[in-house]
Amino acid sequence: MSSSAPKLCVADVSMTFKTPTGAFHALAPVTLSIPQGRFVSLIGPSGCGKSTIFNIIAGLLEPTGGRVLIDGVDATGTIGRVGYMLQKDLLLPWRTVLDNVILGMEIQHVPLRAARERALPLLHRYGLAGFEYLYPNALSGGMRQRAALLRTLLFDTDVILLDEPFGALDAQTKLKMQEWLMQLWSDFSKTVLFVTHDVEEAIYLSDEVHVMGTRPGRIIATIPVPLARPRVRGSVLSGEFLAIKERCLELLHLDPTASEAVNEAA
Amino acid sequence: MTVQDTTPALRARAMASLQRAQATHQTATPAGKPVRRLPVQKDWPTWALVAAQIGILLGALSLWEIGARTGWIDAFFWSQPSAIAETMTVFFTTGDAWTDISFTFRSTIIGFLIGTTAGSLLGLSFWWSRNYAAVVQPYVICLESIPKLALAPLIILVFGIGLVSKVAVATALTLVVSTLTAYAGVKALDPDGEKLFYSLGASRLQVFRKLVVPFCLPWIISVLRVNIGLALTGAIVGEFIASQHGLGRAILYAGQTYDIALVWVAVLVLSTLAMVMYATVSWVESMLRKGVRQ
């Protein structure tokens, strides 16, 4: 792996779905290049193809055009190369939290005992101590998301995709989970691609924010976030932060269909 | 209590305005509003409930016995409790009660196990291939709509008058129910769950073993109690048509020889057998549910 090659590269990826009424362009050619260890967000209105991009990167969808490169190697249409956390936590109700978290390792044929031994200290360290042997239905929404995220992390890929992981949480829990995610990210040094509707969340967490537009889904702007890390909550009120936020909201407004997302973010 | 603390003048004024309000209200609805309280049922103690239940049984039995003795009830057609009790003793001491019970029990259980297992596997297999499911599904639905008991004479002809034919009828009744229920489970599977597994690099076999089967287990379990009843029905009908043993055959034989007391005895034994099997399956079901933790 040469140091110059980006960790994840989405090269001219486009997607057209055939529908009874004709072809639907879900994605115009989209290009993303993400270096190792970066935290990058995608924001945009509903239907701008954020989830389509994720499904293509995860190999669950074959793009109509373009390629996905991981470490410079073509990974288009191959599964199991990136960790993918979907909007729902999708914890299996018949497995304990511990056995849910090791699902990825289990599928990769890591022996159960070894997988559990690896997972236990992490559960303890990242706020799930005492919940290891409970079933998911006994957990709160925030705890379930923690378990789902640890499952994604323990799958042990360099790149992880997070699709609105905190979308369904209440405001308080959401803030706590953002801090928690920052902690995990700095501990594990993963490359993260994050989708959210929440402009403030995107800026607060990311090194770079890509603003997307609809019909067809495309990236209309890329905004770097040069705020120093580790960031503190107060930074969301700084002039620099507010300037970036204003810029993002403006870009979302340019797109006439984007008002929905802006309302949600406001 | 606070009302008493207010001055008499205030109270008088309040009463006056209240009466005025009631007066205007009554002119609005001349009939007035009926005063109604929440109906409250007082639960009887357990012993009273049990006593009432036993009382009804004993009362009905004595009425039956007295009616038969005095001639109100035709004992030839309806028999009477004392005769039934006598026949019961004979049935268990000198008759082939245990042979019949064991025959019916075996055909029911074997048919239940084969039908439930094969049906569940068939239903689960529809997950494996959408094309295969689309091809086979119409046949399953046809099979569902056929009254399987109508096929019983054919089954007896093919499988003979022994145990195998009774097992076959019981299987025919239970198989389709299990198939459709397991398939309903497969259809209720969240596609995002499969997506998660595939994003983790799972093979189809892994998705099947670790997601589809555990997810559908509660569906499969939920049908066990229905199936034990169906299997018993199948076994009895099989015995009605042609058999050398079994409680169904005992009932048919007793009816044909006008031994009405024996009909009652066989029906009673059959009901007991059904209750025992139902209770056992319910217990197994609750154990499985605990294991599956749904």
Layout of helices and strands, plus pairs?
The complex is a heterodimer of chains A (266) and B (294).
Chain A: E1 8-19, E2 22-34, E3 39-43, H1 50-57, E4 65-70, E5 73-74, E6 83-85, H2 97-101, H3 103-107, H4 112-125, H5 141-154, E7 159-163, H6 171-188, E8 191-196, H7 199-205, E9 208-213, E10 218-224, H8 239-254, H9 259-265
Parallel strand pairs in A: 3-8, 3-9, 6-7, 7-8
Antiparallel strand pairs in A: 1-2, 1-4, 4-5, 9-10
Chain B: H1 2-5, H2 8-28, H3 46-70, H4 75-78, H5 81-93, H6 97-128, H7 130-145, H8 152-159, H9 163-187, H10 191-199, H11 204-222, H12 224-241, H13 247-256, H14 260-292
Helix pairs in contact in B: 5-14, 6-9, 6-11, 6-12, 6-13, 8-9, 9-11, 9-12, 10-11, 11-14, 12-13, 12-14, 13-14
Main attributes of the structure:
heterodimer; A: 266 residues; alpha/beta; Rossmann fold; six-stranded mixed sheet; 9 helices; 10 strands; globular; disordered C terminus; B: 294 residues; mainly alpha; MetI-like fold; 81% helix
